[in-house]
User: Which sequence fits this backbone?
């Protein structure tokens, strides 16, 4: 029998690999990005209350309208931007499903999709499964800035989509207003769709402002935004997120979404609806996470790891070239098995496994865990 799957040579995601290694060696797990503290009890109670009061059957296909109204209000409060709850917002099974469905809705064989490497790992397989061709543009250490000349030269009439991600996983950089204006200028008067992965919109530090694509009217008209309540409210296991786009694009998206997932977990939607009524629940998040970043960085400031403080996301990249010349995958494994701390090597997110000798550490952890992690890092 010769059955050929559509996706070949796919390795197990580095997040699963490193988390499994951390578990097997009882290491502190700063690899896969998830908090080790509890989601707000109000949310947990909200889900169980919803289950007990009958929210147990299918939610509407596009998501609970009350939740979509609450999301629409959040856009208004944060970005003074409007998305119509009925026609322009859809609740999804996390950002991953939204991204997969957006790509499947639009990308056809031979379409090109520009992505920036290192890139979050779910973009490329979705493009390939739909017959599209990922066109990678590398972000170079240590600043990981987008080279707009390269973008300009990569755009042609086969370019169907550009995927951007700010704040950026895994580097912890953010796109500036200048970046957004360049993107706008280069795609102006084209039909190129922008997929803007904004799952870390609330995790941004210092004086940085999140440059949501919706703040740029000309981009907004051709863009999808994807977001994740899992990332935002410390419950990555619930897998609830949403996407927004102008009506025509969203109509096309829903044609696929309704057969891909139809609708998502109803009780959580009710809980998030109630929770979003208090805007402090998301307005306080940048400060909450900045305290985590600052704690972690001050604890390791005298270690032999070098860093530029992360500008956003709950990841910090640490450079280790003063410590060893080992490649990053081997070093990450050694740190996990011998030193008891797990991280993510960045080379796996590059096309040619480009190795800048840097590792990504997740600081969405209790201060006690951060202290234990720092004790290890300081001894290396
Ligand atoms: N995009 C990025 C950049 C991510 O880091 C993640 C992981 N949370 C996702 C998308 C997927 O989000 P979700 O867990 O909501 O599917
Ligand atoms: N987004 C998470 C990270 O970057 C991982 C999610 C996953 O395991 N797929 O670590």
Assistant:
């Amino acid at each position: 029998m010769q059955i050929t799957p559509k996706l070949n040579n796919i390795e197990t995601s580095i997040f699963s690999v490193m988390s499994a290694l951390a578990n097997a060696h009882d290491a502190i797990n700063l690899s896969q990005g998830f908090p080790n503290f509890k989601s707000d009890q109000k949310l947990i109670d909200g889900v169980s209350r919803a289950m007990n009061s009958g929210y147990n059957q299918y939610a509407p296909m596009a998501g609970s309208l009350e939740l979509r109204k609450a999301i629409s209000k959040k856009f208004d409060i944060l970005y003074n931007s409007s998305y119509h709850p009925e026609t322009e917002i859809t609740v999804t099974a996390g950002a991953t499903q939204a991204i997969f469905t957006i790509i499947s809705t639009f990308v056809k064989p031979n379409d090109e999709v520009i992505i920036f490497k290192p890139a979050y790992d779910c973009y490329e397989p979705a493009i390939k499964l739909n017959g599209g061709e990922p066109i990678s543009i590398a972000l170079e250490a240590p600043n990981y800035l987008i080279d707009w000349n390269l973008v300009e030269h990569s755009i042609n009439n086969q370019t169907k989509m550009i995927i951007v991600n700010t704040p950026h996983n895994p580097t912890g950089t953010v796109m500036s207003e200048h970046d957004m204006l360049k993107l706008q200028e280069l795609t102006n008067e084209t039909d190129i769709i922008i997929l803007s992965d904004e799952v870390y919109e609330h995790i941004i530090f210092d004086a940085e402002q999140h440059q949501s694509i919706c703040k740029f009217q000309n981009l907004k008209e051709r863009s999808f935004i994807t977001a994740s309540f899992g990332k935002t409210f410390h419950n990555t296991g619930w897998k609830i997120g949403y996407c927004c786009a102008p009506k025509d694009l969203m109509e096309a998206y829903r044609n696929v979404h309704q057969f891909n997932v139809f609708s998502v977990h109803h009780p959580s939607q009710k809980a998030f609806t109630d929770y979003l009524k208090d805007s402090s629940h998301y307005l306080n998040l940048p400060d909450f996470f900045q305290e985590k970043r600052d704690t972690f960085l001050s604890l390791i400031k005298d270690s032999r790891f070098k860093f530029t403080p992360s500008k956003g996301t709950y990841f910090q990249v640490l450079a280790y070239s003063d410590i060893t010349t080992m490649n990053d995958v081997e070093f990450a494994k050694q740190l996990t098995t011998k030193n008891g701390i797990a991280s993510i090597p960045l080379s796996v997110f590059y096309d040619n496994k480009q190795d800048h000798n840097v590792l990504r550490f997740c600081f969405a952890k209790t201060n006690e865990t951060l202290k234990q992690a720092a004790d290890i890092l300081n001894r290396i």
Remarks:
- The first strand starts at residue 28 and ends at 29.
- The longest helix spans residues 65-79.
- The mean pLDDT is 97.
